[in-house]
Amino acid sequence: MASIELDRVSKLYGNGNYGVHEVDLTIPDGEFVIFLGPSGCGKSTTLRMIAGLESISSGDLRIGGKSVANVAPRDRNVAVVFQSYALYPHMSVRQNMAFGLKMRGTDAAVIDAKIADAANLLGLQNLLGRKPAALSGGQRQRVALGRAIVREPAAFLLDEPLSNLDAQLRAEMRLELVKLHRRLGRTIVHVTHDQVEAMTMGDRICIMRDGRLIQAGRPLEVYADPVNTFVARFLATPPMNLIPATLQAAPGEGLSVLTDSGAVLAVPARHRNAYGERAGRRVILGVRAEDFHESPDKPDWQKIAVRVVAVEALGAENVLIGQIAGHATGRDDAHPAGGDKPLEIAARLSRYFTAPVGSMVELYIDPLPMHLFDPETELVIARPSLMGATR
Amino acid sequence: MTSMDRNERPAFRRRFGLHFGLIVVCAIVLLPPLWVLRTSFVPEQLSYSNELMPAFTTDNYSALLSSRFGQSYLNSLIVALGSVLLALPFAATTGYAFARFRTGGRWARFAVLATQMLPPVALVLPTFTLFRSLELSNSLTGLIIVYAALNLPFLTWILMGFFEGIPVDLEWAAMTDGATAWGAFWRIVLPVSMPGIAAAGVLGFILAWNEFLFALVLSGPKTATIPVALAALQTSNGVQIAKVSAGVVLAILPLVVASRFIQRFIVQGLTFGSVK
């Protein structure tokens, strides 16, 4: 059993700053968990605290039910794969993989057998005699994984292991890691700042910011129901569009969102109960890039005029960057309260969409998946989830 | 005149000026040692001659090596090597402690340099008094201890720099692999920093090899090192310049070899292949 429990775990530095602040998380045995967040959010520190490489300032950490707060890294039975791979440069691939087993006094014949198995699994058979300097980036990465696998640890802790690989290799290794997890069935904690890795690899995503765990959940749940504007923007490329607006009562029992540009979006009936009490208040309207469309396929999709700033042709799709007419200022990560920048939105459109820069185009917003956020707290205004719902 | 000629002229002048300047600088640097080399192969009585090579002899070398100078050469080797071998383990562990842990706080790093900040002459007399009462004066052991102590701060700082350049991930990997902190140092950090340790060793060797003041005060006729033996060639009959030159050539030979090693070790990448 190698469940990992973080019980209000904090890391306080000498300068009074928290690297990690009261993180509460239980990772059941065998789960593949992703820690996702921007640089400096505390995800690697959390991983190192689990590994025992950083001390815990307060709280408790349990692996397999036992508190390990005062247990040395070598006695925690976890293996770490570092972003830098951290292969021992003076040792061959075989020696690198054997090191952990030797340290534990494993029999030489057993070591050989385990290395052969791991080398088979990772395609390293022909590289065992080489030094790390003679390996490519992808090979080093696999050796680092192999070094972890041979030890058969209770949990694997992966600290951005794919970030030094080129895009193609990274995609391959993503798949390899997922397969490996299925095969070994061990707990994996994977730290990354890459949202594609986060969405595709893990059973669960834990999003961190400023040392705090902001949201944890299944990837699609977190995507569909972000708890605040940070998660909404972080977990997508392009990020969710945040549009300053006012929620107002519409004729009848309806509600509508009036954007600062004057565009009006009727709130779907399904959300009215949740949003009703906010009528008359300022809100931030959150619309994902894929919820903009070129044509009104459904009657409730609502028109909005956009001035084309750029069209990024990605092959499979075109991303339109545009300014919403009438909006003087916009909100983004750099200007959370709205800045001097004109409000730009990103819309994910079909690969056939074209429009000259500077022209006005009409797009249609699917209002159903929309979110409203409180402009002061930036927290989402809760509404029933659409996960599993049909239109 | 074509446009190419016009372009080439200033370039040629610049290159000529540059090379002429370099030749002058090289001459200033190289002439004295070359003159010493020349004098070492010239008979004593012709050594001040204006001729480039009035006569050729190896007598200066054979005379030197058959005298006590040969013994001094051996003494210098023993003392320089011994002091480096004694100082390196202390310097490596201290440097590692400073590089990786908060050992002693920031001021401790500078405190170890304290002896380097005093003029050597301020240290030599107390050392002499101390060593005489310990019966370590006039012994190679005494010199080894003194040079190890004098080189320790400097070697510590060099190695601290090397250790700081080693990615901490390597030690973390070793520690999660089952090594203790000491095991990670011994099995990973030390082998990886061998080039740095070798470079530090060579530098320590050079310093000990060249040291004069402590050697003069602490050594006797049988334990004199090369700098002391060279100084002794200045007799009441004047300076035996040809022999001194031969002595200087012999004295710098190990340093030439050592500096080649240093280049190799310092140029060699420290941890290539371990990360990225």
TrEMBL record, chain A:
GO terms for molecular function: ABC-type transporter activity; ATP binding; ATP hydrolysis activity. Keywords: ATP-binding, Nucleotide-binding, Transport. CDD domains: ABC_MalK_N. It is found in: Cell inner membrane. One of its GO terms (cellular component) is ATP-binding cassette (ABC) transporter complex, substrate-binding subunit-containing. It holds the Pfam family ABC_tran. InterPro entries: AAA+_ATPase, ABC_transporter-like_ATP-bd, ABC_transporter-like_CS, ABC_transpr_MalK-like, ABC_transpr_MalK/UgpC-like, Mo/tungstate-bd_C_term_dom, NA-bd_OB-fold, OB_MalK-like. The keyword ATP-binding applies. Belongs to the ABC transporter superfamily. This is ABC transporter related protein. It comes from Mesorhizobium ciceri biovar biserrulae (strain HAMBI 2942 / LMG 23838 / WSM1271).
Automatic annotation (TrEMBL), chain B:
PROSITE patterns: ABC_TM1. The chain crosses the membrane at residues 16-37, 73-98, 110-131, 143-163, 184-206, 212-232, 244-262. GO terms for biological process: transmembrane transport. GO terms for cellular component: plasma membrane. It is found in: Cell membrane. InterPro entries: BP-dep_ABC_trans_perm, MetI-like, MetI-like_sf. The keyword Acetylation does not apply. Pfam families: BPD_transp_1. The keyword Lyase does not apply. It is a multi-pass membrane protein. CDD domains: TM_PBP2 (cd06261). Keywords: Cell membrane, Membrane, Sugar transport, Transmembrane, Transmembrane helix, Transport. Part of the ABC transporter complex MalEFGK involved in maltose/maltodextrin import. Probably responsible for the translocation of the substrate across the membrane. Belongs to the binding-protein-dependent transport system permease family. MalFG subfamily. This is Maltose/maltodextrin transport system permease protein MalG.
